[in-house]
Structure formats: C-alpha cells, structure tokens
Design goal:
single chain; 8 helices; Putative mRNA 3-end processing factor; 330 residues; seven-stranded mixed sheet; RNA endonuclease activity; RibonucZ/Hydroxyglut_hydro; alpha/beta; Xnuc_lig_assoc; six-stranded mixed sheet; Metallo-beta-lactamase, Chain A
Length: 330
C-alpha cells in the first residue's frame, strides 16, 4: 500500500482511509485522533475522540464534558480498521503525543503534531519513534530561529525584576502549556513567593497541579501588590481593561516569536522572553537526522525552507499544505 493511500491531506485534515479516521481534524468528523489539547488541534464536535488521558481531560475542561459522544484513552497499541495506532510523548504540552500509524501493509508513519526537544517541567519529554515517514511541523522552519535556553530567559526575567522591584512584571503566556511551563521555570529559577495568575489560567493550572506538576503557590491577579511582583496572563488580557489595574507594569511575553523584534515592538513588549514549546531550526533538523526516515512530510509552518534543507541533505520531502493550524488561539 502506498503512503498516500494510508494518510493524505483533506479539507478536514489528515485522513487515514484504512482506519477511517482523521488526525487533528479542523472540522467535525466521525472519528478523530488528537495529538494535544491546543485549540487549533483539538476541536469539539467529533463523533468519537481517541487521545491521551490528559488531552481528553483538557478538552473536557475547555469544551465541557459533552465535547464528544464517545472518548477513548490512548493506551498501548490500538487496532483501528486495517491499522494499528499508538501514542508517544511529544514534549510540547501536558498530554501531547505523536501518533504512530502502522498499516497492515505499508510504511510506518509518525504524525508528530507539535513537538519540542528541550526539557519541559510540565510534560513528558519527546520520544523518538522509528518510522518510514515522519510528519513534522515547521513553525520555526528557518535557520534564523535558534531559541536560547529557557533557563537563561528566566535569568533575564529575574534580572528585570531586581532592576525594577517597584514595577509589577506582567508576562503574557498562552493559557494551556506555556503559562504553566513559565510558572514551573520561575520556580526552578528561585521564585518561591506566590505568583499571580489571570482567572483564565486557573482551571488549567489547577489541573496541572492535580497531575503532579509543581507550580507552587498561586494567587488571583486582582491587584498590583502581588507578593512576588510576577503576574502571568493570556495575551488577550493585555488588550482589555484588566491590564489598567496595574501601575506602571513591565510588559513581557513568552514565545518563540519574541526572537522577531518587530513582533515584540508591535505588541508593545518591553521584556521579550524567547521561550518556545516548538522545535527550532536545529531541533527539527537534528530530529530528522536522528530518525532518518525515508520521507519527510512537512506541515503548518515555513515548509519551503525545510523542504530545501531536506533536498540538500538527501531526504525525500513533500509539503502537506494543511491549513487551520497556528499558535494557540486566545
């Protein structure tokens, strides 16, 4: 069986005919396999959903318990039609997984979803999975993107807090994954006092704590006199009246896109923190070299740059041209 008969892009997302399922579909489908809980990959309305336990829990938090008629926890190797599928850690956010699709006859395909190779204190590390075809994101698929160590970025945050002790530090971070990672990194950097969080982060942060992620003491961000001077909020909060309750704040934002100075200026960011939950250029190219697949399929990102690198390094590659995937929507 040819690879494109096993998995191919459609208007709804990646579709597997032998198993009759979609992976991270952008529209409601009868059967969906979900890599992780971010809103551009995990949508409500599917007839049945197969995902990790954490992803199913997160979808229930975000969409309500009735987000699907049927849900199944991905555990071990699962038979679906003429395929077997299994879920493996992606290192992106809590519960994130790569999906290995093994047809009865044909190549092994790994759909990596969003993934990261740096240590992340809020989720399991990326697990390399041998495969014939590797489906990779290319969010930061250009050589210019080389993200610094998050520990160094936390040192920059602490230095700013020491330099401006009377100014609250308001840091924007996506509500699922990035916010909790930033809090955990701040704890590792030595911030022991309570950290204030926007109300939009409360339920997801509580869930992480319930799963054993140490976030330390958290308090509601209802005033500018928080004990640590550190406030974490979703980016959307910075365009609302909420931000006006803080006097002369230092505005920061944690994202891999903060390496692009124009983006930081457009957002009015005084303290850009380059902390990404996606692979940068060295990580994605090193991963391809490590797996050494027969083919690389590239999706949602700078596909042409990675296509050219694959061509120069002897890897057969193709773009999937999937649409509907972007940074976690707010």
């Amino acid at each position: 069986m040819r690879a494109d008969q096993i998995l191919h892009p459609t208007d709804h997302g990646l579709y597997c005919p032998p198993g009759d399922f979609h992976i991270d579909p952008i529209r409601p489908v009868p059967r969906a396999l979900i890599t992780h809980g971010h809103g551009d990959h995990a949508r409500a309305g599917h007839g049945a959903v197969l995902a990790t336990r954490e992803t199913l829990d997160i979808m229930a938090i975000r969409y309500g318990e009735d987000f699907t008629a049927f849900r199944q926890v991905a555990d071990g190797c699962i038979r679906i039609g003429d395929t077997q599928v299994s879920f493996h850690p992606a290192g992106h956010i809590l519960g994130s997984a790569q999906i290995l699709v093994q047809p009865d006859h044909g190549p092994r395909i790994v759909v990596s979803g969003d993934y990261c190779r740096r240590a992340n204190p809020v989720c399991a590390p990326f697990q390399p999975v041998p495969c014939d075809i590797f489906v990779t994101e290319a969010t930061f698929g250009l050589p210019v993107f080389r993200h610094p160590d998050p520990v160094d970025e936390m040192a920059r945050l602490l230095a700013s807090m020491a330099e401006f002790p009377d100014r609250p530090h308001l840091i924007g971070a996506y509500a699922l994954g990035k916010a909790q990672r930033l809090i955990a990194l701040a704890r590792q950097a030595g911030i022991d006092a309570p950290i204030a969080i926007h109300g939009a982060l409360q339920r997801l942060s509580d869930y992480h704590i319930g799963q054993g992620v140490d976030l330390g003491p958290l308090v509601p961000a209802t005033a500018d006199d928080v004990p640590s001077g550190l406030v974490i909020a979703p980016p959307s909060a910075f365009a609302s009246p909420w931000v006006q309750r803080f006097r002369d704040p230092v505005i920061g934002f944690a994202s891999g896109w903060m390496q692009v100075r124009a983006r930081a200026r457009q957002r009015g960011v005084e303290l850009p923190l380059i902390v990404s939950d996606h692979v940068d250029w060295p990580q994605v190219t090193d991963t391809i070299r490590e797996l050494s697949p027969e083919q690389v399929w590239i999706t949602h990102g700078t596909e042409d740059g990675l296509m050219r690198w694959c061509e120069l390094n002897g890897f057969a590659a193709r773009p999937l041209r999937l649409v509907g995937y972007e940074d976690e929507p707010e």
